[in-house]
Design a protein that fits this description.
22-stranded antiparallel barrel, 45% strand, globular, mainly beta, 11 helices, Maltoporin, Chain A, 3 domains, five-stranded mixed beta sheet
C-alpha cells in the first residue's frame, strides 16, 4: 500500500518511542526477571527466566494500554501466537468468537482464572472442528492484575484441553483504593461508535481479608464495510454491468421494491461488527482464618447482547416465490417484505460462575480444597424473516431455542516439600478432581421449526393428476389463473420449513447430554543442582463417555551461565471431546423431492449417525516437544527463543454430509436410508442428509516463539521495548483425500499467515507517556475451487497503534490515541468467496474494520 505524506507523518508519531532509543546509551535493568509466575510449575512459583517452559506475563498496565473492550482482542494484540477473527455471518460465532493459539482451535488451549479451570461457553461451532471453549470476553480487563500465557502443552498438569497452551487470568486482590476509566471512540469511517465504562474498587474485610470488585459496561454500534448486493444472479447496483443481465427479475423492480431496498441504510446486507452491549461483573475475595488457613472465593456475572445479519433473500431465490392460496390466488413474501429481506439474528449471552475454596497447611503438607460452578447460556432470537412453509400466516420474529453449558467441579490440591539431597528441597504436588458437565439444547417455539402447509405441493387439493379438482374449479371460476397442467404453476411450489436462516430446535432434536469424570495428578520438581531444575508430571483421567487417559510430561531448565539458560520439555496430552460436541444437534429442513427432510449434524454416538457408520468420539491426543534459550543481561536486555512441535492425533472434525433418500433409484443415498431403517431410526424417511463429528485426521504443528525486552533509562526518561514474534505451520500427517478436497486441503495449510510479530515501545518522560505498537502479519493465500487454478495471495500487512497520555495529577490521567492509525485494510477478496456485498474475507486474521480513534480518562482513588 502506498503511503501519503500524512501517513508517513503519522508513522513517525507511532514510532516516536522507538526512535528515542538512540538518544542515550544509558541502560537499566529490566524488571522482567522479577516477575513471579504460578503457571506451568504446579505448586512452585518461579521467575519468567527460570521457568522450564515458556510463559509470558502481561501486566495490568499493558492490558489497559490496549484500546479494546473484548479481552479476546486484547490478548490477540499482545500475543502473536493468539488469533481471533470477526465472523459476521456465522450463527452463534457472531456473538462468541472462536480463537486459536499456535494455529490450533480455541478448545486446544486451557483457560484458567486464578489457576482454576474456567467453564466453557455454550456455543459449539457447527462446521470444521466443532470447537467449544470458554468465552474469554466475559472476563473484563478491569478485573485483571495480570495474564500468564503458557506456550506449551500442559495436560499432564492441568488436564484436558491444555494441548496448545494455557491462559491463566490472575484477578486483582486489592483491599483498598480503586480505579474508574471512561473510554469512547469510533472508526475513521464514522461508524462503530463505542463507550466503555470500567472500574475496580477494593474493600478490607476486617483486619485479615479483602474484597476486590470490578465492573464493566460497554456498548458499540455496528459497522459496515460493504458494498451494495450485486452478483451475476441478482444485482441491486444499477451502475454495475451485472445489473439486470438477463431481465428475468424485471417484474420485481417496482417502485415499492426500490423504496424498500433504499430504506435499508444503503446496503441490503451489511458486513462488519455487530451492535453490542454488555455488562460484566467480577469479584475476588480472601479472608485469613486461624493460623495459615485462608478462605477465598471469586466469581462473575456477565450479560451481553449483539445482533448480526444473514444473507439477503432476493426475489425468486427459493424463499421469496409465488404460492397458491386456498382460493387459488397468489401469495408472495414480497407482500410482507416488499424489498426482499435480510434475516436479523440476535443473541443474548448469560454467563455466571462461583468458586470458593479453603487453603492452608497441615504440618508439612499444604492443601487447597475448592468447588466451582459455571453456567453459560445463549438465547437466540431471529427477526425480519419468515417460516416460508406457513405462507401468509407466518410470524416475522422467532425464538428458535437456547443453548446451555454447565459445569460443577470439586478439586483438592496438595503440596509437600522435602529434602531429597539436592540443591533445593523437592516439591511434590498432587491432587484429585471430580467434574460434572452438561450440555442442553432448549427447544424453540413451534413456529420456528414446524412444517406449514406449503412444505408439500398443492396443500389445498386444487389439482389432481394434472386437472383441477372441484376446489380448483371453484378457484378458476373466481378468477384464479390456476393451471394444473403446468408443472411450474405455483400450486406445485414447495418451500422450506422453519424460521428462514436458523430453523428452531424441535423437541425431537432437543435435550441434555451429561457426563462426569475423575482425575488425579502428581507433579514433582526441584533444583537438582545450582544450575539444573527438573520437573516431571503425570495425570490420569477417566470419563463416563469414553475410556480413561494417562499422560505425562518432563521439563527442565539448565543455566549455562548466570545470564543464559536452556530449557526443554516433552509431554503427552489429550483433549476430551466436550459434551457439546458429543450431544449437539443442528438440523435444517430441505426439500429435495418436494417433501421436507431433515439435513444436519447428529451426535456421533446417537442412532442416526451410528447407523451410517459413526463411532463414538474419542479424545484427541498429542505429543509436545519444546526447546528454548533464555537470557537476562545486566544491560537491560532479555531474550527468549522457543522452538516447538505438536503432533496431534485423532483431531475432531465434521465429515462431509452423507445423503439419505427413500427413493430406490437414489444409489448411495438409498443405501443409507436402508441402514437407518434397519437400525430402527424413527422418521428415517424424513432425513435427507447426515454429518457428524469424527476423530478424522492427524496434524503436525511446528514453530518458534521469540520474545525480547529492553529497557533504556536516562535521567528522568525511560523507554521500554518489547518485541514478540511467532512462526507457525500446520500440515496434515497422512492422507486426507477422503475428508477434504484439494481446495479444503490447500486452505487448511495456507489460509492464515505463517508468521506474525508485535513490536511496541513505551516512552515515559515526566507526566507524559507515549506508546507505539506495530502488529505485523505475514502473507497468506486461498484457493477458489478444487482445481487450484485460481489462488489469491494476500500481501503482508502492518497495523500501527499510537497513544499519548498525560498525568494531570497523581489520580487523574487522560489518554488519546488510535489503533491502525494508517487506516490500513487487507487486500480485497478477488474470488467468489467474497460475494454478496462483502469486500474483505470475513474470516481474515488481519482486521478489516479500518482505523479507530479514542479518548480515555482514568481516575485512581
Amino acid at each position: 500500500m502506498k503511503l501519503s505524506y500524512r501517513d508517513k507523518l503519522l508513522g513517525c508519531t507511532a514510532a516516536l518511542a522507538m526512535c528515542l532509543a538512540g538518544a542515550s546509551a544509558a541502560q537499566a535493568q529490566d524488571d522482567t526477571e522479577d516477575r513471579i509466575i504460578v503457571t506451568g510449575v504446579r505448586g512452585q512459583a518461579r521467575t519468567v527466566s527460570d521457568s522450564p517452559v515458556p510463559v509470558d506475563v502481561i501486566g495490568a498496565d499493558e492490558l489497559e494500554a490496549v484500546p479494546y473492550t473484548d479481552t479476546n482482542d486484547i490478548i490477540r494484540t499482545l500475543v502473536p501466537s493468539y488469533d481471533v477473527s470477526r465472523q459476521p455471518i456465522s450463527d452463534g460465532g457472531t456473538f462468541i468468537r472462536p480463537a486459536s493459539m499456535r494455529g490450533l482451535p480455541t478448545d486446544k488451549t486451557l483457560v484458567l482464572v486464578n489457576s482454576h479451570r474456567r467453564h466453557r461457553a455454550a456455543l459449539v461451532s457447527i462446521g470444521g472442528s466443532g470447537t467449544q471453549g470458554p468465552d474469554i470476553a466475559t472476563i473484563p480487563s478491569a478485573a485483571l492484575a495480570s495474564v500468564e500465557v503458557l506456550r506449551d502443552g500442559a495436560a499432564a498438569q492441568y488436564g484436558s484441553d491444555a494441548i496448545a497452551g494455557v491462559l491463566n487470568f490472575i484477578l486483582k486482590d486489592n483491599d483498598e483504593g480503586g480505579t474508574l476509566t471512561v473510554e469512547t471512540g469510533q472508526y475513521y469511517q464514522g461508524d462503530g461508535f463505542g463507550v466503555t465504562i470500567s472500574g475496580n474498587v477494593g474493600f478490607a474485610l476486617g483486619d485479615s481479608g479483602f474484597l476486590s470488585v470490578s465492573g464493566e459496561y460497554s456498548t458499540a454500534d455496528a459497522t459496515s464495510r460493504s458494498e451494495q448486493y450485486c452478483d451475476s444472479w441478482f444485482c441491486l447496483d444499477q451502475n454495475n454491468p451485472d445489473f439486470n443481465p438477463t431481465g428475468w427479475y424485471i417484474p420485481y423492480l417496482t417502485d415499492e421494491f426500490r423504496a424498500a431496498v433504499n430504506s435499508l441504510d444503503g446496503v441490503v446486507q451489511p458486513w462488519g461488527q455487530p451492535n453490542s452491549e454488555a455488562y460484566r461483573l467480577f469479584f475476588n475475595a480472601g479472608y485469613e482464618l486461624a493460623g495459615t488457613m485462608e478462605l477465598y472465593a471469586f466469581g462473575n456475572y456477565s450479560q451481553s447482547e449483539a445482533d448480526g445479519s444473514f444473507f439477503y433473500r432476493y426475489p425468486e431465490n427459493g424463499t421469496i416465490t409465488d404460492l397458491r392460496e386456498a382460493d387459488g390466488s397468489i401469495y408472495n413474501p414480497l407482500e410482507i417484505f416488499p424489498g426482499g429481506f435480510t434475516p436479523r439474528f440476535f443473541g443474548e449471552v448469560y454467563d455466571y460462575s462461583l468458586l470458593s475454596g479453603l487453603t492452608g497447611d497441615m504440618g508439612p503438607v499444604a492443601y487447597d480444597f475448592s468447588a466451582r460452578f459455571g453456567h453459560n447460556e445463549i438465547q437466540y432470537t431471529l427477526a425480519n424473516t419468515i417460516n416460508p412453509s406457513l405462507g401468509p400466516n407466518t410470524p416475522t420474529s422467532f425464538r428458535p431455542g437456547d443453548l446451555i453449558n454447565e459445569e460443577f467441579q470439586l478439586q483438592a490440591d496438595f503440596t509437600y516439600e522435602f529434602d531429597a539431597g539436592m540443591a533445593s528441597p523437592a516439591l511434590l504436588a498432587f491432587g484429585l478432581s471430580y467434574l460434572d458437565e452438561s450440555y442442553e439444547i432448549v427447544g424453540g417455539e413451534p413456529a420456528s421449526y414446524e412444517a406449514g402447509p406449503y412444505a408439500t405441493p398443492d396443500p389445498w387439493g386444487l389439482c389432481s393428476s394434472g386437472a383441477p379438482t372441484a376446489a380448483g374449479l371453484t378457484a378458476i371460476a373466481g378468477g384464479s389463473t390456476l393451471d394444473c397442467a403446468d408443472s411450474s404453476d405455483p400450486v406445485y411450489t414447495v418451500v422450506g420449513v422453519g424460521s428462514n436462516g436458523f430453523p428452531g430446535y424441535s423437541p425431537e432434536f432437543s435435550g441434555t447430554y451429561e457426563r462426569d469424570s475423575i482425575g488425579a495428578y502428581v507433579d514433582i520438581s526441584a533444583d537438582v543442582t545450582d544450575r539444573l531444575f527438573l520437573q516431571a508430571a503425570a495425570r490420569y483421567e477417566d470419563y463416563s463417555d469414553f475410556d480413561s487417559e494417562l499422560v505425562g510430561k518432563i521439563a527442565g531448565q539448565f543455566d549455562l551461565t548466570d545470564t543464559v539458560g536452556l530449557r526443554a520439555s516433552i509431554g503427552t496430552g489429550f483433549r476430551a471431546p466436550t459434551p457439546g460436541q458429543q450431544g449437539t444437534t443442528n438440523v435444517s429442513t430441505r426439500l429435495p423431492n418436494g417433501f421436507p427432510v431433515a439435513t444436519g449434524l447428529f451426535p456421533a454416538s446417537g442412532p442416526v449417525a451410528q447407523a451410517l457408520g459413526a463411532e463414538p468420539l474419542g479424545p484427541e491426543t498429542s505429543v509436545n516437544y519444546t526447546f528454548g534459550v533464555t537470557s537476562e543481561f545486566d544491560n537491560g536486555v532479555s531474550l527468549t527463543v522457543d522452538f516447538y512441535r505438536i503432533d496431534l492425533a485423532d483431531r475432531v472434525n465434521a465429515i462431509s454430509t452423507q445423503p439419505v433418500s427413500s427413493d430406490p433409484t437414489a444409489g448411495v443415498a438409498y443405501t443409507n436410508y436402508l441402514a437407518l431403517t434397519a437400525a430402527g431410526v424413527v422418521g428415517a424417511e424424513s432425513i435427507g442428509g447426515v454429518f457428524y463429528f469424527a476423530n478424522a485426521f492427524d496434524t503436525i504443528t511446528e514453530g518458534v516463539d521469540v520474545v525480547a525486552t529492553y529497557t533504556a533509562d536516562w535521567a528522568s526518561l525511560t523507554t521500554d521495548f518489547t518485541a514478540s514474534f511467532n512462526y507457525n505451520t500446520t500440515e496434515f500427517d497422512g492422507n486426507v483425500d477422503a475428508l477434504f478436497n484439494a481446495e479444503s486441503q490447500y486452505d487448511f495449510v495456507n489460509g492464515a499467515p505463517e508468521w506474525r510479530g508485535v513490536f511496541s515501545a513505551v516512552h515515559m518522560m515526566g507526566d507524559w507517556t507515549i506508546l507505539g505498537r506495530a502488529s505485523v502479519y505475514g502473507p497468506y493465500s486461498n484457493a477458489n475451487d478444487a482445481s487450484l487454478a485460481t489462488i489469491q495471495e494476500w500481501d503482508p500487512e502492518v497495523l500501527f497503534d499510537a497513544e499519548v497520555s498525560y498525568q494531570f495529577t497523581d489520580d487523574l490521567r487522560l489518554s488519546a490515541g488510535a489503533r491502525n492509525i494508517f487506516d490500513n485494510y487487507p487486500d480485497p477478496g478477488e474470488m467468489g468467496e467474497t460475494c454478496c456485498g462483502r469486500i474483505y474475507r470475513s474470516d481474515s486474521v488481519v482486521d478489516w474494520q479500518g482505523g479507530y480513534y479514542y479518548l480515555k480518562l482514568r481516575a485512581d482513588f
